[in-house]
Amino acid sequence: MADERTRYFRRLGRRRRSARRWSVIAGGLGGAAAVLTPYAGLGVPDAAWAAGAGGALVLAAWRWADLRALAAQPAPPAVDPAEAAAHSRARLVAAVERLPVASGMLAEARRVRSRVALRGTSAAEPWGRLDRARSTFAGLRDRLTGLAAPAIAEATAADRSLRDLALRVAGVERAIRLAPPDTRPSLEQARETLAGQLHSGVAAYERLVAAAAGYVAENARSDVQEPAVARLTEATDLLHGVASALAELRASDPTFRTS
């Protein structure tokens, strides 16, 4: 997608070409009218040539006026190439995310990239636990209905917050390796505080997933018998009844045969 500066110069070029084109048309029609007009006066065909020349001349004047008005405006500033590339990439990702399958693939790619970025830091282990808990919760969320439905939004917000916290822990750890010796104690203390918050947050998220699993289990136990199980039970009772009836018939009539 072109930036504002590129679009401005494109519009300027289009108006310049249009003004020149109508100027040529007006000159051609005006010259033809001057040559073809008889000395005795104007006839109907000659009036058409003159009207066409006048209309083309007016349109050419309008096009030149539009060109001068646009040229008088300052051109938009040039866009930084890195910013333009980032904007284009963001637009492409947004377009891909609108596809049903691609959105999940992009989310998984982001998680993998973040997990690789955390490799070698103390945030990698809680990040892995968070990934496993999140996958477990994803299998339960469709069954969290009624009073348990708000837990879905809470889990989503907590997952996002904990992942951001893990990235901050990793960033502080990398900064400690480069920091001067006199600044490391304060950074170490900040890292320990953030790491403690991360571990406690992941543990809380795991407890939430366990509670969700307990809710789903208790809800299933309190539900009425599944229709499929009820139908299987009825079919089993029916077969038992038919078998008993056949046994009685065979006992009373040895010549009885089933087809």
From TrEMBL:
Transmembrane regions: 21-41, 47-65
Keywords from the named record: Membrane, Transmembrane, Transmembrane helix
Name this protein carries in UniProt: Uncharacterized protein
